[in-house]
């Protein structure tokens, strides 16, 4: 009878240790999945950026707003609220990215991709 209690106690301690280790080493970063392996994540300064899951940063950010239209991610990057936003267009199917676009260049790029002229953009939701 004593052996069963010791064994049960050892198993409980082992499971608790695994749980604590798992919590300490697991990544709790929140990720917004985008088409074709792209994602919005927070960088070291907590600014939202777009990166390729297996390949690195694509839009350094901070991404102020975005939307996804089929395989294309469009949006704005704005370093400070007083700064004028710069637009970007990312074709996740081909990997082609155009960034730091002025509004007229952004509109031309959207037209070339047969996308709506003024898609509604929303800020990325990335809880801390």
Q: Would you tell me the overall average pLDDT?
A: 84
Cα distance, first to last residue? 48 Å
- Total beta strands: 8
Percent helix range: 25-40%
Largest sheet: 4 strands, antiparallel
Brief summary of the model shown:
Helix content is 27%, strand content 31%. The chain is of the alpha+beta class and 128 residues long.
Task: Give an overview of the whole structure.
- The protein is an alpha+beta fold and 128 residues long.
- It is elongated and about 80 Å long.
- The protein contains 2 helices and 8 strands; from the N terminus they run αββββββββα.
- The longest helix is centred in the first third of the chain and has 24 residues, at 2-25.
Describe the protein's topology.
Layout: H1 2-25, E1 32-33, E2 38-42, E3 48-52, E4 56-59, E5 63-69, E6 72-77, E7 86-91, E8 97-101, H2 103-112
Antiparallel strand pairs: 1-2, 2-3, 3-4, 5-6, 6-7, 7-8
